[in-house]
Fold each of these.
Amino acid sequence: NAGVTQTPKFRILKIGQSMTLQCAQDMNHNYMYWYRQDPGMGLKLIYYSVGAGITDKGEVPNGYNVSRSTTEDFPLRLELAAPSQTSVYFCASRHWDKRGEKLFFGSGTQLSVL
Amino acid sequence: QQPVQSPQAVILREGEDAVINCSSSKALYSVHWYRQKHGEAPVFLMILLKGGEQKGHEKISASFNEKKQQSSLYLTASQLSYSGTYFCGTETNAGKSTFGDGTTLTVKP
C-alpha cells in the first residue's frame, strides 16, 4: 500500500490563479480530510468527507472547494488564490477496526501565493 | 472552538518525564494525539474514545477524562527521538476534528 499520496509537494501561485491539490489513498478508507497548517500553528480543518459523494465544511472552508467522486480521491480546489492561503496543506484518511482508529497523513503540499 | 494545550513548550533531559495536557469546553467524542517533527507530516500516536480510557504506546500513554473533557499525554523516560511538537485533536462528533496549537518538546542529552 502507498498510503496517502499528495501532489504536488511544492507550488508557487500568483494572486488570482487557481489550482487543485491532489490526494489519493489506496486503503479503502471512507473518511478523508484536508487540513492547513500555518507556521508555528496547529492544523485547521478545511473540508472533510465521510464517503464518496459526501463532503462537509470544516473550520476554514472559505476560498476552497472539494469533491469526492470516488473512495480513493479527494482533491482540494483553490479558486482565486490569495496570500492568506500560503500554508502547508495536509490530506489524511481514517481507518477503523476492532483494534481502534488511526489517521494516516500525506506528506504535505507547501503552497506559496505571491 | 479549538482545544487548549498546556504547556506551550517543555525542555527535558533524556530520561525525564513529561505531561502534556489538552482541555476542551465542549463535550467530546474522542481525543487524538500526534507528534510532528519540523518539516514533516504529523504522525498519529493514539486516539481515545469517550469512556475515560487510557491507552499506551511504548513509553507514551494517554488518558481521557470524559467528565472534565480533558486528556493528558504522558511521556516517560524521554528519549532524544521524542523531540517535536505534540498536538491534540478533539472531536465533538465522529469525523470533524479541531486541533490545539501544539506543545513543543525538546529533549536534550
Note: DSSP finds no helices and eleven strands in chain A.
Amino acid sequence: AQSVAQPEDQVNVAEGNPLTVKCTYSVSGNPYLFWYVQYPNRGLQFLLKYITGDNLVKGSYGFEAEFNKSQTSFHLKKPSALVSDSALYFCAVRDTGFQKLVFGTGTRLLVSP
Amino acid sequence: SAVISQKPSRDICQRGTSLTIQCQVDSQVTMMFWYRQQPGQSLTLIATANQGSEATYESGFVIDKFPISRPNLTFSTLTVSNMSPEDSSIYLCSVEGIGGSYEQYFGPGTRLTVT
C-alpha cells in the first residue's frame, strides 16, 4: 500500500531563513506526490506535485520540493520563510490504480518574526 | 482548478441526530471524494462517489453510517447518521483536477461538533 511519512510534528524557523519540511514515501511503482497547506479554519490548498520529469518542482507561494528517488523523499522547501507561511503542511501520495490520496500526519510550521 | 463550495460551513448537533453536508463543484467531474479530518489529525478518505453508481467506501466506513448521494456531475451529499461525539470532525469534499492533472482540489470543509 502507498504511504507517506512526515517525521516532524512541528518545524520552527525564523523569518528570512530557509525552511524544509520533510516527507518520505513508500510506493509500488512510480510515485505521484503532492504537498498541501492548511491555514487555520480553512480548507486544504494545493501547493505542488511531482508526477514525472525534473526532480525539483516549483509551486505556489515560492515553495519548491525536491524528489529524491534513492532516498524516497519529497521534502518541501522555501529559500526564505515568511511569518505568513505558518500553517499545517501535508504530504500526500496518489494511490496507484485508484484516484484517492493518502496523506501524511502533517507538520506544523511556525515561522517566528 | 475547480471551485468547490460546501454547506454548512459548520454545525453543532446533538448525538443521535443526522446531518447532511452538501458539496457543489463549478465544473462537471466524474469522481468526487469525501474525507474526514478528526481534531488534530490528518485526512482520511471516507468514500469515493461516482455519478450514477454506488459510492465506494474505505475500510472502517459503512454506507449506513455515511450515506452518500451523487445525483449529477457537479453535486454530492454526505450524511453523517446517528451521530456521536466521536463524529466531531472536519468533513471535506474534493475533486481531481481537470484533464488528468492528478492533484485534488478541496472544498473549505464542514466543521461538525457533536454534543
Note: The mean pLDDT of chain B is 93.
